[in-house]
Structure formats: C-alpha cells, structure tokens
Amino acid sequence: MYFRDVIGQEEIKERLRQMVAEGRIPHALLFDGPEGCGSLPMALAFARYICCTGEKGTDACGKCPSCVKFNKLAHPDLHFVFPVVKKGSSKIVCDDVVKQWREFILRQPYFSYNDWTLDLSPDNKQAMIYADEGDEIIRKLSLKSYESDYKVMVVWLPEKMNANCSNRLLKIIEEPPAKTVFILVTENAEAVLGTIYSRTQHIHFHGIDTNSLTQAMMREFPMLSEADARAYARLSKGNILRARELARNSDEDSQNLSQFIRCMRGAYTIANFSAQKKVEKQDALIDLKTWSEEMAKIGRERQKQFFAYSQRLIRENFIMNMQQPELNYLSTAESAFSSKFFPFINTRNVESFMKEFDLAERHIEQNANGRMVFFDLALKCILLFKR
Ligand SMILES: [Zn+2]
After folding, report:
1. Alpha carbon of 51 to ligand 1 centroid (Å)
2. N or C: which end of the chain has fewer CB within 10 A?
3. Of 124, 133, 41, whose CA–CA distance to 94 is shortest?
4. What is the SS3 assignment for 28?
5. Which residues surround ligand 1, an ion (CB under 5 A)?
6. Ligand 1 centre and the CA of 79: distance in Å?
7. 110 alpha carbon to ligand 1 midpoint, in Å?
8. Which residues belong to CATH 1.20.272 in the chain?
9. Is this structure's pTM higher than 0.85?
10. In this predicted structure, what is the pLDDT of residue 387?
11. Which fold has domain 250-386?
C-alpha cells in the first residue's frame, strides 16, 4: 500500500508527509474515521513511508529493502495488533494468524470488521483483542529494530481490545520506547479507552470525497457509467464498502425500479382517468392485478427489498419536489423516471405513501397473502394519487 493507492483523503496524506519531512512523527497517532473511509490503508501507506530508506518524494520509493519487504507486509519492524477469534479455550494472539491477516489485506485492503471476522471464523464468532496480546505487544516492542529507524505498530480497532490489554498498551504509550510509532485505527473512538484516546494525536477521517470514490468505482467496475458511479459514491456517504455493495446490487435495483414504476403508472392512470379513457383504465387495473400476482411470487427477501427500495424512491422524489437537488441520491435510470414522477409526491401524500409501503411490509412479515397485500397496496396508491 502506497499513498497513491489510498483513495482520496489527500489532505491527510499531505499532513502525514509533512510530519515526516519535519521530523515530527508523533509516537502515538489515532486514525479516527468511519468504516470504509480508508484509514487502515492510510496507516499501511504511512508505515511504509516512515520506514522507507530510499529517496522519498510524495510517496515511498518502492525500491529500498524496506519497501520490498512492505510489498508482502512482512517487514520485521512492522507489527500488527488486530481482533482475532478464539477457538475453544486455547490462547490466541495475533501472530498465530498473522499470515492469514497479511494475505487478507494484500488481497483487498478495504474491508470491514465483519469481512475479517468472517474470514477468520465462518460461523461468525466475535473477534477481539484478548488480554494475552498485552505480553506480545511488550515483547515485540522490546525487540531491537532491524533495519529501519522506526518500529511501527499498527493497532486495528483498539475499541475491540480487552481492558487489561488496553491498560498495558496505555502504559507503553505513556512511556514509549524510542523511535516507536503507534498507529491506532479506530471506527468508534468513543469506545477506545479514554486515557489512550487523550494520549494520542488524532487524525480525523471523513468518508472518501465523491470525486475520488467515483473514479475508484469506475476502475473497479468497468461496466459502471460515470453517473451511476457518482450516485453510489454519494449514496454511500464515502464508504467504499457500501458503494461496492450498491454497485453489486444494481441489478436488483433495476428490477425494483421497474416494479415500482409499473405500480405507480397503473395507480396514476386509474386515479386520473377520464370518461373517454375507459379502456385505459380497465387495462391498468388488469395490469395491477398481474403485477400483484408477480410480486407475490418473488420471495420474502426480495419483497422486503422492494419495500425498502420504494420508500427510498418516494423520499427521493419528495426531496426533488422540494427543489433540493444537492440532497438527491439517484442512479441514472432513477433520475430519468423521477424527473417526471416527482410532481406527484408532495406534502399532502408523502407520509401516507410511506405508511402504506410500511404497512404492506409488515403484513408480508406476518405471512399475509402476498397477492392481496400487493393488490391492496396498489389500490391505496390510487387513492393517494386522487388527493
Ligand atoms: Zn523505499
């Protein structure tokens, strides 16, 4: 991981480079940012930069012996502390799974606590940093540094650390060995031991900026249009893990959208029919009935997704009606539909629309007959368009 591989967060990169250039590297840093913002990749890039013994520009040189070892994250002066999963009652420390950890990061440096836990333990046991890790931290830091000026210890998710271990880490941070840098990477600063928090220099991360995340998404998903990549970047609030999930779900979303459009179109046609258009009204009613039958068959999970999706789209259209385009998070296809649909979602009916979708969802959860629930929902929509 180099600075150039970290998506966005340019100001933070600059600040970290500055620290190195001025020889003012704090002995304990806390990278504090939400999931998917890239704080761990940044810690890895910074550790590489600190340890690089070659010609450093805006990034580590990539050629020196230190950089070569960093390619495999197997530098003797780079230490990791991270949550692990206990199997039975036997003792476990990070070094027992460090090989798996390195491979995991090298495959994909942007991941969540859940992703890592699942990799460790498919039965999804909680991972944490156990008391025994305290001895390990002390042992590792008492080692002489091999080849770099600095030893770097990256602590991923100190909020998952056992209290005993936290207290021992605190002691070391209070009286740090020379030329040792701690980089604590937290997603929940409030859960970090207060005394550790107050003794670290804080670097606050926000979500990844929209432009950088959009570009990254287009590189990762070559089929994605720029408009959709941008929509996912914004919708995810700069969380790349969420943005990826949205891109992967976009197939389902396009189905949700066409199902939603069909329901709204039918309901609207019936609500606004005039005597001359009797046939159209009949056709619309028949289609709504077919729609309900189809919706009844898609399975409970997809039905629930449809309800959540529809409520989001109604909310987005209401916001559009409020003329607040900067608050809108829509894909290209959604925008195209909404640009015509939004005038019909207004202060008079928005709440009732949300309520009806919510109610339908609850009925589905209570095992009501799907055809009835969806047809009933369509009829309610007719009334709401009539208002
Ligand atoms: Zn180097």
Report:
1. 7
2. C
3. 133
4. strand
5. 52, 54, 60-61, 64, 67
6. 18
7. 23
8. 250-386
9. no
10. 65
11. Zinc Finger, Delta Prime; domain 3 (1.20.272)
